[in-house]
Amino acid sequence: MAIKTPDWVKHAVFYQIYPDAFARKVPPHQKWLLDVPLEDWDAPPTYQGYKGGNLWGVIDKLDYLQDLGVTALYFTPIFRSASNHRYHTHDYYGIDPLLGDREAFDLLLKAAHEKGFKVVLDGVFNHASRGFFFFNDILENGPNSPWLDWFKIQGWPLSAYDGSLPANYVSWIDYRALPQFNHDNPAVREYIMQVGEYWLHQGIDGWRLDVPDCVKADGFWEEFRERVKGVNPEAYIVGEIAFDATQWLDGKQFDGVMNYPFGRLTAAFIIGDRVDKDIIPHFYEPYEPLDAPGYAKGIEELLARHPWEIQLTQLNLLDSHDTSRFLSIAKGDRTSAKLGALLLFTFPGTPNIFYGDEIGIEGGHEPDCRKGFPAEEKWDSEALAYYKQLIRIRKKYRALCTGDYQTLYAQEKVYVFARISEEEALIIAVNNGQEKAEINLSELEKVPSLLTIKPNNMIHGEGSSNWDNAQLQLIIPPRCGLILAS
Amino acid sequence: MAIKTPDWVKHAVFYQIYPDAFARKVPPHQKWLLDVPLEDWDAPPTYQGYKGGNLWGVIDKLDYLQDLGVTALYFTPIFRSASNHRYHTHDYYGIDPLLGDREAFDLLLKAAHEKGFKVVLDGVFNHASRGFFFFNDILENGPNSPWLDWFKIQGWPLSAYDGSLPANYVSWIDYRALPQFNHDNPAVREYIMQVGEYWLHQGIDGWRLDVPDCVKADGFWEEFRERVKGVNPEAYIVGEIAFDATQWLDGKQFDGVMNYPFGRLTAAFIIGDRVDKDIIPHFYEPYEPLDAPGYAKGIEELLARHPWEIQLTQLNLLDSHDTSRFLSIAKGDRTSAKLGALLLFTFPGTPNIFYGDEIGIEGGHEPDCRKGFPAEEKWDSEALAYYKQLIRIRKKYRALCTGDYQTLYAQEKVYVFARISEEEALIIAVNNGQEKAEINLSELEKVPSLLTIKPNNMIHGEGSSNWDNAQLQLIIPPRCGLILAS
Questions:
Q1: Which Gene3D superfamilies does this one have (chains A, B) (predicted)?
Q2: Residue B210: active-site member
């Protein structure tokens, strides 16, 4: 059976919202609940403090997001959870009270849909939290709990909170705060499937799945796909798998994964040895700077790894709530951030902007990367304009979304590739070197459709282009990029 | 302002359901969730084991309850809770998964209402549980939790589960599993008020309140009454206050309380020194057997203690989930159980049958009193017929519900009283002695309305009656009771 992934994802521009730190608003009718002591919005984020961002705040920010041009919102978890990142799920059916309430969620979803945004939620189905009811019942009732088989208990009494004793149950990376589900229990499986279906029925457009590679039960994600697509065939399912995800990208499980390999390659090329070694994301280790040939090789291997239909719905990213900010990895070098974004918005797969990258938020390892979205006077307005332009281009040229990918040139610090569909062709060139690049793209006869169209309209960037029959000459200023369209 | 309590309560017969042990049914569509390992239904109940009774089971039992004749159901807690009695609330808005789900509750409420039952739920608003989200967040995030002020924290780190350390937060009777709310926090107060309103909006007919005397915040229960009655002016609010409840029965707080003083007096009179001292409920200590004059004195003091409008909506009981069964306190003496029931069903206030008393379930201190409701072949069918008759009488004669109460005779082991309304009068006589009683009720001219009506129709019990002008002669066999109606 042919692999099928959602068309809307291929044409989307995602924006990742970390709800605790994105926007805060306390409506009068929720003042009683939400006026609580919080960490200062602009103070460095901490592991356990809350900034109090909420869904009411997001509703107010939808105009900003629409103006930015993004078309899909991926929310890190919003379900009730005793952690500011909310990956410690306490209740899969409830909105976290600090984020507002169910009314806030319903209003947000409705408003987002009315403005044309898709909405993807984060599902943490490998593990729950110590407060999650079925685990809490075991903690409270010991061997008498009817829910024993929901987790993998190894001894009594449970030492869930006493760090001086070994945690005597299976937990995610042996972190006792996150007891791992026993996915071999059919009840657990059905429970998770029903959660998956439930929120689709409530109108969300997809699931981002936390550490799905840790779930070992046979056919688990195949069933999840069937159940979710059974509710909405166009639902997007994207896994968080930072390394080789081939096993899960067979078309029977996920539509894509968070494309950390793309982020890793792009950092290695664009940031190169400008890198701040102290905050290299562990997903990127071992970090080795790449020149253009190395980048081209990595990118082509990556593109060859998965079916094209899947490539088009990979969730591409430069950074996330789990990594240092790209800008900070580049020690604040704004040019690197720009060139990285240029590659992000022109690569096959859907680009995902981690909230605030578009206005130049900096941040090291988590939780530092999860800073409160700053007031407008602190924005990097040049970065914002740049992002807006790239988003407009991404949305205007379908070839950037679904066109073929062809490396055209990769030498030293200069990398050039094309995105080509039947109707249009674009050439994207990046000169990451300190010198002006004057290059001749020959052998273009290998790309006949490109030669037919001969894109020569510089819609982005600086430099010049000149077609001479089957040859294209490009002049690109140092550390610049450009896009030629037809 | 005149005190007002719900009329329906005055005419109701309550049945108290302990959901874990009352009835169990697993519908096919919930098999995936509910087929779990459980304590054997007929095994002695334990503190931490579950029998798995559920709401689906209760739905199936409604015909039985209708046939029994009761008109109102009081459920001990049904909200999500990691304890078989479910007084450790984990979520005030969710039905416990072992009890079924929200669909089960909605169907139960609908079916119960269609059959004419009122439904009262148990609200545990003094304390929550360690798994309750707002406490769990404090446990997980320590001083960074936004919800610190929801409880009364006294030190860090919280020793919620480590019994070797003092529990460094305020909990109910210093039991660390039940952290006590900080009711002085307006958010906590509002949260509880909204829970109270919410379930009324869902259609329940009232609240039984767990240990409400432990809530010290000014005007808390006054506001709760206003909020609840604001949703449904006919809602019933009954507190669990085992001792003198005068302070809460001023008409501004509760419509009544669980009338343990009535149960205590009735046990002391009817069971007397047949008592099993090992299982006397602590509510009844110090236990002293009473003869008829002592009982009359106690009952009259009890009736004088609260306004009459409140008396009529007291929740009278012989036992509950918190006490040994009346039958067992009487060492299995069925005659005591019958005479106790006779007094229960003829006393002002609404009678409350603890599930299974009507079929002769025995049981000592909790949890033993919470046995699985047995299969029909184990029922005491004589007890059941007796209960049915008394319930029929209670419902037929409005004077038993709202008529005046008048002691007519109290000597040695014989106690006689009347319930008198404008239309009818009943005389209830109990001879708790081992000898036949032949008594003359003179001085009846003090009760002119009784003399007008002269009830002489023996609708229940054994013995004989004979009116001679203003005198009534009664002959009552040993350890018997009777009811004369007009």
A1: Glycosidases, Golgi alpha-mannosidase II
A2: yes
Nearest to B136 among A90, A93, A147 (CB): A90
* A210 catalytic per annotation: yes
What is the band of B443 on the pLDDT scale with cuts at 50, 70, 90? confident
> How many residues are listed for chain A in this entry?
486
Rounded Cα distance between A116 and A96, Å, is: 25
pLDDT at A285: 87
Residue B217, judged by CB atoms within 10 A of its CB (0-12, 13-18, 19+), counts as middle
Using CB atoms, which residue from A52, A131, A162 is nearest to B133? A131
**How far off is chain A from B78, nearest CA to CA, in Å?**
14
Whether residue A465 contacts residue A458, with contact meaning beta carbons closer than 8 Å, is answered with yes
Of B13, B94, B108, B128, nearest to B58 by C-alpha is: B108
pLDDT tens digits for range A258-297: 999 999 999 999 999 999 999 999 989 889 999 999 999 9
Domain B403-485 homologous superfamily, CATH: Golgi alpha-mannosidase II (2.60.40.1180)
Q: Do B50 and A148 touch (CB under 8 A)?
A: no
Tokens 């780190």 -> residue:
B157
Q: Judge: B133–A130 Cβ closer than 8 Å, yes or no.
A: no
CA of B137 to nearest chain A CA: how many angstroms apart? 4
Q: How far apart are CA A357 and CA A344, in angstroms?
A: 12
- DSSP label at residue A112: H
Residue A29 DSSP code: G
Q: pLDDT (tens digit, 9 = 90+) per residue, A374-432?
A: 999 999 999 999 999 999 999 999 999 999 999 999 999 999 999 999 889 999 999 99
Do you know the residue count of chain B? 486
Scanning the structure block, which residue is given the tokens 């978890």?
A77
CATH T-level fold of A7-126+181-396: TIM Barrel (3.20.20)
Superfamily of domain A401-485: Golgi alpha-mannosidase II (2.60.40.1180)
Task: Please indicate whether, in this complex, the C-beta atoms of B146 and A98 are within 8 angstroms of each other.
Answer: yes
Residue position matching structure tokens 């997980």: B140
Q: Is B80's CB within 8 Å of A144's CB?
A: no
Q: By CB neighbour count within 10 A (0-12 exposed, 13-18 middle, 19+ buried), where does B448 fall?
A: exposed
Residue ranges of the domains in chain B? 7-126+181-396, 403-485
Contact residues on chain B for A80, CB-CB shorter than 8 A: 133
Burial of A297 (0-12, 13-18, 19+ CB in 10 A): middle
CB pair distance less than 8 Å for A139 and B131: yes
Q: Can you tell me the ipTM of this complex?
A: 0.96
